Amino acid sequence: MLHTEFRKFKEYLSQNRWSVLGWNILLLLVWWPWVFNTAPRIDTEVFINEPYSNYNWLDMGRQGAILTKYILGLRWFNPHVEILFGYLLICLASVLFGYLFWRAGRKNKVLCAAFGIFCFISPIMAEQFYFELQIFEIALAYVLCAVAVGTAYIGIFKRSKGFSVISIGCMVWIFSTYQSFVILYVAAVITCFILLYQQESERKIGWTLVWKLIAGFLCAFILNQIITEPFFSAQIEYLSGKIAWSSQTPSQSVYHILGHLAEGFFGEKPFYTPFYGIFILGGIIKVKTFKGKTGKNNISHSSDCIADSSILADGCRWHDSYVKSTNGVPICFRV
Description:
335 residues
């Protein structure tokens, strides 16, 4: 099984090498000023002035990021190392996600290779990577997210418990590195499912696959909660203040969700763009007006609407718009 995937991955790279190289060079041009400007940015001076510091990550459910530092020997913070290798990991994540979507849809190799440009230069990523102290850990989490999605599908299709365990392990790691990877993982899984649905028979891509994907996700999510809640979740405003279902009335909650959807549709804040709303509206019109001979065509053309699920999930989780969980939007609009 692993040999087959390596062979397919090699085929993807060999047939698409110039596209992969070209898009990553463009990504480097965008990142060039960032890679070679290591002036400390927000919160970074804490890690520089206090080597081996955990900052407040162990109190806010980011024990996975600290684990990454322990495993890779990054406890003594060096901004040059973090930024350079963070950028290289972003390139690797771009290639892996591109391969993942090509493997699922078996088409558009050139556009799949452009994943990094569509995703990692989006406005929300400028905010994300402005926090240099976590750039390497977040970039590695993107790589592990692609691995988690791929191994989840391989484990189900090949009935391999080993790949399923790897997927769950990667999910626990990324969920405990940055909480918004829960949304990122779900968005990537749904995207791959739709791409697969367009190619495979309904017998192979059906409810059994859906339930197995949900079961694997729930196993990882619950396991992460079991580890995080007793040991790595202090009652601090950063976490407790973001979920307010119990402290606000239903009408207030609905108001905040609708307001957040409006921001996502109309681009009212720098982390969005009016094109998000245009793309979502176009996808909804396509689903409503497309008349295929089978219901499968309607489902396959609903991929344009996935992005709305990321924006809605963000609004449903938080009492107000919360930009850190909008990282899933660029992945959704990539496909």
